[in-house]
Design a protein that fits this description.
Blueprint lengths: L1 E5 L3 H41 L15 H9 L5 H8 L14 E5 L3 E6 L12 E4 L4 H30 L2 E4 L2 E4 L2 E4 L3 E8 L3 E8 L2 E8 L6 H12 L4 H33 L7
Antiparallel strand pairs: 1-5, 2-3, 3-4, 5-6, 6-7, 8-9, 9-10
Length: about 280
């Protein structure tokens, strides 16, 4: 026959849940910057600069980037066909813009400017790379930075789930706490109550004495569990004993303070204006 059942307390579960969500939000922030935020800022910077050279708003892809720029500088590319094969199609020049003698190739990371001789020969060794606000490496690093908070967030959410699943059940033969079964006959003592809200239950298991900490921030019916176990084992309730001792100390302090106050009044009356000198 089940005498008492209890689920998890909200405090422990909500703490793990709150911290887990904070880390997941942090990780999501890094992912957003890598996938959207930094790219938007680069696109805004690109529109500002490219408006000087080209009409409309060109589609900005992943290439060309620093890797293609390095290949361009190291290879001996002389023709436009080879240049377009490596970098893609150049930007269409805006009418009236000073774009003669150069081809520009833009991406979400920056723009490559390649000089072209009047004869049509590509001067790849003189090419220049101009990055927008955020480099490709900086954008990619946002995903790496997201790994740590996301992993921590998942860990804390798992702990929150485990805290939520905590159950205690007491019957006439013993207690099951968090999946651990403790027979009533194996319980040695319930003691060491701490004012922070926990008490230690000692029990025998495999010839050794083990300890189970019962915490009011983890289990909902903390007081009821301790009271019922103490009744079953005829142990003094350590919670009641603690607060009775606290009340005794408070009463003693009040009595001492009262005695001191009376002694002070008596001394004052003896030393008043009518006192003999």
């Amino acid at each position: 026959m089940i005498l008492l059942e209890s689920g998890a307390a909200r405090t422990d579960r909500n703490w793990w849940l709150g911290v887990g969500l904070v880390f997941l939000v942090m990780g999501g922030y890094f992912i957003y910057d890598g996938a959207v935020g930094y790219r938007k800022q680069n696109a805004a910077k690109a529109r500002e600069r490219l408006s000087l050279w080209t009409a409309g708003q060109p589609e900005l892809g992943e290439t060309p980037g620093p890797e293609e720029y390095n290949l361009l500088r190291t290879r001996k590319i002389a023709s436009r066909q080879e240049l377009y094969k490596l970098l893609g199609q150049p930007l269409a020049p805006r009418e009236g813009a000073a774009t003669a003698g150069v081809e520009r190739f833009a991406s979400v990371y920056g723009v490559i400017t390649v000089p072209i001789d009047p004869s049509g020969r590509v001067r790849s060794e003189l090419a220049e790379w101009q990055a927008w606000k955020w480099s490709k490496e900086e954008i990619r690093n946002q995903y790496f930075w997201a790994v740590i908070p996301c992993v921590l967030g998942v860990y804390f959410l798992i702990r929150a789930f485990r805290a939520w699943r905590l159950r205690a059940e007491i019957d006439e033969q013993g207690m099951t706490y968090g999946g651990v079964r403790i027979a009533l006959a194996d319980i040695v003592s319930i003691r060491d109550y701490n004012k922070k809200g926990w008490v230690d239950l000692y029990y025998r298991r495999g010839g050794q004495e083990k300890r189970l900490r019962i915490d009011n921030q983890k289990i909902a019916k903390f007081d009821e569990i301790v009271e019922l176990l103490c009744q079953q084992k005829k142990f003094p309730n350590p919670i009641k004993a603690y607060f009775e001792a606290q009340r005794g100390e408070d009463d003693e302090e009040k009595a001492t303070a009262g005695s001191d106050a009376q002694a002070g009044v008596k001394t004052g009356s003896e030393g008043g204006p009518g006192a003999e000198t």
